[in-house]
Each structure stands twice: as C-alpha cells, then as structure tokens.
C-alpha cells in the first residue's frame, strides 16, 4: 500500500513489473482478449467458455513459437501433448456437427470452434516437432509418465458418466472423455518437472495459462452443471456434479505450481528461477 502513496516507489514497482516477461506476456494477451470480446461477443456469460478456449490456444501458441525459434523441444512433455491431441479431437467431434456444448454467446457461432481447431493443429505441430523435426532435443528418459494410465480411466468414466446435450451418445461420450482427460493431462509435465528438477520458462507459462483456462471452464460449468445432468436417471443425475468435481481436482493439483508462478511474477523474477528454488527448498 505504501507504494501507491509514494510516486517514486510506485514508479520503481511499475518498472520492475514491466521488466518481467510474464507481465509483458499476460498484458499482451489481456489486450487481445479484450479486443476479441468487444468484436466477437454479445456480452453473454457463456463467453467465458470461449475465453477459456482462447487462453488454452494462447498457451499452445507460446510453446509452438518457442520450439520454432529455438529449434528445441527441451522441457516439453510429449506424453502431455499427445493427450491434448486426443482431448481436442474428441471435443471437436462433439461441438462441430452439434450445438449442445456450445456457448449461447455469439462466439459460439464459430469462434469457439475455431479456437479449439487451431489448438488441435498447434498441439499436432508440437508433437510433429518432437517426434520428427527435432527428436534429438527431446529427452524421453525424463518424460516417463505412462499416459495410458490416465487415458484409460478417463474413457471408462466417460462411458458411464456422460451428459446428453447432443442427444447422440458417441459425441456425448467424446465430449465427456475430452473433459475428464483434460483435467489430468498436465500430470506428465509435472512428473517431468520432478525428474528434471527444473522447469523451462515456456512450459511454466503454458501450465499457468492452462490453469487459468480450467478456472474459467470450472466457473462456467459450476454455474451450469444442472444442464449436464439427467434427473430421471439414477446414475446420470450426478453427471453435472462430477464434471465440476473433476475440474476442481485439476485446480487443486496445479495449486502449488500456480502459487510459485505468481510469486515469480510478483518478484519480477524468471519463473524457472523460483520453481528451481522451491524444488531445492523441499
């Protein structure tokens, strides 16, 4: 509070924050998001779902641009990216031919679907770079988390607990599978962090953006979960509650990381520096 009363301290604080890569990065995205909201949104609350998709797209773009500029896939989990390919492919099968899971906002006419499709393409390009273009820069030894351990259970749960907004079971199951898998897709990256004992800056920004995206999605579905449930079915009447719980679990999983990420931005330090410090402190 003292900084706001003292112009010199305020100037020094602003200078420190503007030197932070994270502040510049998120500031640029904020301006972009505001512009997109003003142009493509009708102001409905459901735009939050489109904004969630836009944030997720932003995170993949950061990683893809870093890999392209450095010609290195160091610090990125291939297992995580392959899970995201399954997430976006399945979700697109549910939202392109059908309207049940689209935002009521006019951004649901096409913007939401385009964001999801572009994110799928970016995730595919990252997987291509890691498997074909720059495979020598990818360390498979530290990316050892078996992603089938999370894909299998997500598929089984989706078969049992899925909404019915499309009234077409295959796409309802695909949407549920995408949501359940997305809630635990970050686990391979976290396991990679633990094995390496450090985090790359671009993957840290990626995970922070994913956390923000999941928070927005959580807020939207927490306010709309009743639409996902079938009160006449003794199992599917709990689908909406399960959707909210599974997203809350992801936010809890990412909580410690986000704490250190925000502290890094607050201190004007590189994100990887604080994560390295927190790992060594443990």
Short note summarizing the structure:
Helix content is 72%, strand content 0%.
Give the topology.
Elements lengths: L1 H4 L1 H13 L1 H20 L6 H24 L7 H18 L15 H23 L14 H13 L8 H14 L4 H10 L4 H24 L14 H29 L3 H11 L1
Helix pairs in contact: 4-6, 4-10, 5-6, 5-8, 7-8, 10-11, 11-12
Feature tags:
282 residues, mainly alpha
Structural class: mainly alpha
Share of residues in strands: under 5%
**Overall average pLDDT:** 84
Distance linking N and C termini: 31 Å
Largest sheet: none
Q: How many helices does DSSP assign?
A: 12
Low-confidence stretches: 9-18, 277-282
What is the overall shape?
globular
What is the N-to-C succession of helices and strands? HHHHHHHHHHHH
Helical content (DSSP H or I, runs of 4+): over 70%
Radius of gyration: 20 Å
Count the beta strands: 0
Descriptive account of the structure:
By secondary structure, the protein is mainly α. The protein is 72% helix and 0% strand. It has helices at 2-5, 7-19, 21-40, 47-70, 78-95, 111-133, 148-160, 169-182, 187-196, 201-224, 239-267, 271-281. The chain is globular and about 50 Å long. Residues 9-18 and 277-282 have low confidence and may be disordered.
């Amino acid at each position: 509070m003292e900084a706001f009363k003292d112009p010199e301290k305020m100037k020094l604080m602003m200078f420190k924050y503007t030197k932070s890569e994270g502040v510049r990065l998120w500031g640029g995205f904020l301006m972009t998001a505001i512009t997109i909201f003003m142009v493509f949104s009708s102001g409905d609350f459901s735009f939050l779902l489109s904004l969630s998709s836009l944030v997720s797209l932003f995170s993949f773009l950061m990683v893809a641009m870093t890999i392209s500029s450095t010609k290195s896939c160091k610090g990125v989990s291939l297992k995580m990216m392959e899970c995201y390919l399954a997430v976006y492919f399945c979700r697109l099968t549910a939202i392109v031919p059908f309207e049940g899971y689209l935002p009521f906002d006019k951004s649901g006419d096409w913007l939401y679907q385009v964001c999801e499709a572009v994110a799928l393409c970016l995730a595919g390009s990252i997987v291509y770079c890691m498997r074909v273009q720059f495979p020598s820069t990818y360390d498979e030894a530290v990316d050892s988390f078996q992603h089938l351990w999370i894909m299998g259970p997500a598929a089984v749960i989706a078969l049992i607990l899925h909404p019915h907004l499309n009234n077409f079971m295959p796409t309802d199951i695909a949407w549920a599978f995408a949501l359940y898998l997305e809630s635990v897709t970050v686990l391979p990256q976290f396991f990679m962090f633990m094995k390496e004992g450090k985090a790359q800056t671009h993957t840290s920004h990626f995970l922070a953006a994913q956390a923000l995206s999941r928070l927005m999605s959580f807020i939207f579905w927490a306010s709309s979960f009743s639409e996902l449930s079938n009160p006449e079915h003794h199992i599917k009447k709990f689908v909406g509650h399960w959707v909210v719980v599974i997203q809350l679990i992801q936010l809890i999983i990412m909580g410690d990381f986000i704490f250190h990420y925000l502290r890094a931005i607050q201190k004007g330090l590189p994100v990887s520096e604080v994560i390295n410090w927190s790992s060594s402190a443990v």
